[in-house]
Design a protein that fits this description.
The complex is a heterodimer of chains A (163) and B (466). With 163 residues, chain A is an alpha+beta fold. Chain A is built from 7 helices and 5 strands; from the N terminus they run H-H-H-H-E-H-H-E-E-E-E-H. The chains are: A alpha+beta (163), B alpha/beta (466).
């Protein structure tokens, strides 16, 4: 795993936000690594542990707990569809189905995000997320860091990202 | 000052009282320091820096503002729980983990008016003596985190943060800390564990009351985004004027988000208790879809106990027992509690008579089964079993007796866990069974009660269970 100097600089700066305990920086360091590499590999766990002077298990237990961290590679564009009540009432289950069909993602056997389902061409991956806090304007979803409300046209959404 | 113009189609409803949301959806408004300063931004922080910290706390106490995150505990009182003989550093954490289903309010403060939050936080930090503060923001607000970091940098440039706030000898650093998609991080002790870089397993109270033993086992004040914004307005108006907003013991304004089966879902800032449930749903949200009736309302985020359409509540008011229809409930803390539910985080979910009640409950149970941190057995196992049972009900593979089992599972969770997630996950089931038992039983198959084989094992054998 090759952590670019720029990224390491950013990470080192983040660590200074926690003057009392370096361990507090586990989440921000993992976020920075996941943002760059797409997921948290075993090497990323080791690297984080070394950086923060922790045993690797202290990092791994965090990675496996939080739904926001992935241990497998997502697609180029990672979609999160809100599954929770208000969005479900607005049709998020149907949206998930249509998005999978249009992006050619096979979600059979997947619950929530285990494992994350990726399209054959690697362009898109998808998972359910719990309440994205825009309950009045469902169905809601995110594509990477972009946020969308009242998503009715799955194709139009995917078109924004299709190469 | 010229009248504020809002973006077309996003104008506030006449029943609203915009204070915290004054600048949300406002024409010509942006998140920059320049815009904020042009309208008296950071004047309250400057004022605060000339006051005694204790006097600020007293003002917040007298204003009576109750926590807007869910528990409704008086914010000023919370601040006084820091031990008087404390010699350790004090920390303040802004809980921006907004994740209670049905709640969507902090999102707009963070994305559209970040300086209001930072000013409120800085005042609160000065009042409680915190020199280091964190905004714990949910990972799903990446844009929000960037906006806040930019606003913090701007506040540094202006001398409102950093060494010597506003030219005084008070130093303050605020950092943004991103969560990673776990609902339990909204629970204050779970949040603190998460901020320490661990799994967010909540701590038991006592002894771990954050105000006494919080972050790094030092006194820590955890307040919701909306609550911290109120601090600024309390200083601006004075506690006496502030307390005139809303109703006694339910002062100020609060933001209510309405979602589900109404014509115009959205967010509304109201004076607490000055708008009824009926006004909210029928006037402000344009009522239900044509021909539909209210089947149920979840009044304060999905953890709040459900209320049934047409229900009449007998509550005590001023020593007398009064009858109150669902639509007549004022949207405040005390009345909703007297009606057996709670105002919670201000997320109202309206469910009309076209919805299957078992489907609704199953969706909620799926949420809690997914979000239980797994630390306490009753919650870890119970939340999963509640989901499994309602999965069966929805699939038409449950026996009528399963509804009693479901209720028994729920009743064996609450009061038996370290944190309030136990109540949060069991109250939906308990209240849905109490109020919609017939509907739930109607989704079951009586034939299955006669089956000798436990339907669960039958399903497991058929590999249908999860």
């Amino acid at each position: 795993m090759d952590v670019p100097a720029e990224l390491e600089k950013e990470i080192d700066e983040r660590i200074t936000h926690y003057p009392v305990s370096k361990r507090s920086a586990v989440l921000p360091v993992l976020h920075a690594l996941q943002h760059h590499f797409g997921y948290i590999s075993e090497e990323a766990v080791e690297w984080t542990a070394a950086k923060l002077e922790l045993q690797p298990i202290k990092v791994l237990e965090v990675v496996t707990f939080y739904p926001g961290f992935r241990q497998t590679a997502p697609g180029k564009y990672h979609i999160r569809v809100c599954r929770t009540l208000s969005c479900a009432m607005a049709g998020s289950a149907e949206l998930m189905e249509t998005l999978c069909e249009k992006a050619k993602i096979d979600r059979s056997g997947v619950t929530h995000h285990h494992p994350i389902a990726v399209s054959e061409d690697g362009q898109f991956s998808i998972e359910f997320a719990e309440c994205l806090a825009s309950c009045g304007f469902g169905p809601v979803c995110m594509v990477n860091d972009d946020f969308f409300e009242k998503v009715e046209d799955a194709d139009a959404l995917l078109d924004k990202y299709r190469d | 000052m010229a009248a504020i113009k809002y973006i077309a189609g996003k104008e506030p409803h006449p029943n609203e009282h915009r204070m915290i949301f004054r600048n949300v959806d406002r024409q010509g408004w942006d998140t920059s320091m320049k815009t904020y300063l042009a309208e008296g931004g950071y004047e309250q922080l400057k004022k605060a820096m000339g006051m005694e910290p204790k006097d600020i706390t007293d003002e917040v106490k007298k204003a009576g503002v109750r926590g807007r995150g869910g528990a409704g505990f008086p914010a000023g009182v919370k601040w006084t729980f820091i031990p008087p003989n404390n010699t350790k550093p004090v920390y303040l954490i802004c809980n921006a983990d907004e994740s209670e289903p049905g709640t969507f309010k902090d999102r707009y403060i963070i994305h559209q008016d970040p300086h209001q939050l930072i000013e409120g936080m800085a005042i609160a930090c000065y009042a409680v003596g915190a020199k280091l503060a964190y905004i714990y923001i949910r990972e799903e607000f990446p844009e929000g985190a960037k906006i806040l970091e930019k606003a913090i940098a701007e506040a540094h440039e202006q001398g409102f943060l950093g060494k010597g706030v506003c030219g005084t000898d008070f130093d303050l650093e605020i950092y943004v800390h991103r969560g990673a998609g776990a609902y339990i991080c909204g629970e204050e002790t779970g949040l603190i564990e998460s901020l320490e870089g661990k799994r967010p397993y909540p701590r038991i109270k006592p002894p771990y009351f954050p105000a006494a033993m919080g972050l790094y086992l030092c006194p820590t004040i955890v307040n919701n985004v909306e609550t911290l914004c109120h601090v600024k307005h309390i200083l601006d108006m004075g506690s006496e004027e502030y307390a005139k907003l809303g109703t006694p013991n339910n002062t100020g304004t609060r933001i209510i988000g309405v979602s589900g089966d109404v014509q115009k879902p959205g967010y509304f800032e109201i004076q607490v208790g000055k708008v009824t449930m009926g006004e909210l749903i029928h006037d402000m949200c344009g009522g239900l879809k044509p021909g539909r009736k209210i089947q149920a309302v979840i009044p304060g985020g999905s953890s709040a106990k459900v209320l049934r359409g047409g229900e009449v509540f007998k509550i005590k008011k001023g020593g007398e027992e009064v009858e109150l229809k669902l639509e007549d409930i004022p949207m405040d803390f005390d009345t909703l509690a007297a009606c057996g539910s709670m105002a919670g985080s201000g997320g109202v979910i309206v469910i009309d008579d076209s919805r299957s009640i078992s489907w609704v409950l199953n969706n909620i149970n799926n949420f809690y089964a997914h979000e239980s941190c797994g630390q306490c057995t009753p919650c870890r196992e119970g939340s999963l079993w509640m989901k499994k049972i309602t999965d069966r009900v929805v699939a038409g593979k449950a026996a009528p007796s399963d509804i009693d089992t479901l209720d028994a599972v729920a009743r064996n969770i609450d009061g038996r866990t370290i944190c309030a997630f136990g109540e949060a996950c069991s109250w939906p089931t308990e209240s849905f069974v109490a109020k919609f038992k017939d509907e739930l039983v109607a989704s079951t198959n009586p034939e299955l009660d006669k089956a000798i084989v436990n339907p669960e094992s039958e399903l497991a054998a058929a590999n249908l269970g999860h």
